[in-house]
Amino acid sequence: MKNLVLANLLASAAHFAHNAAYFDAYPEPAWIPGPWFIVVVWLVVAPVLVMGYYWHRQGKPRRALAAVVAYCASGLLVFGHYLYGSPRELDFLTNFLIVLEGAAALVLLGYFLAVARRDSMTSAV
Question: For the whole model, what pTM was predicted?
Fold first, then answer.
């Protein structure tokens, strides 16, 4: 799980950094005020995953599950870029980073839900 957490942090950091650096090239909703907001959002979202992993390691499955699911939900929101612009309008790197972050979040979510289910089944026995 540690590797999946690290992969997610790296994927989201790469996407958020690129989004902030090339803010005008990304299709965004009008309510996002500027690149600084992208950085602030990442500084809020990334620690949620770190805490989820910490709680998982500390044997606090409900807290861990809530944090990881919240993080992954925010990671899947990355596909919202495509509500404001077509993938054809974006360059390869932008599309790659959007898909990378979303895919990483989806893999982490699936893995963590499987672990949570396994752990709940073994504790019930």
Answer: 0.89
Residues in the chain: 125
Task: Encode the chain (125 residues) as per-residue pLDDT tens digits.
Answer: 899 999 999 999 999 999 999 999 999 999 999 999 999 999 999 999 999 999 999 999 889 999 999 999 999 999 999 999 999 999 999 999 999 999 999 999 999 999 878 877 666 54
What DSSP line would sit under 30-52, residue for residue?
TT---HHHHHHHHHHHHHHHHHH
- Structure tokens given for 121: 């089944």
Amino acid at 125: V
16 class by beta-carbon count within 10 Å (0-12 exposed, 13-18 middle, 19+ buried): buried
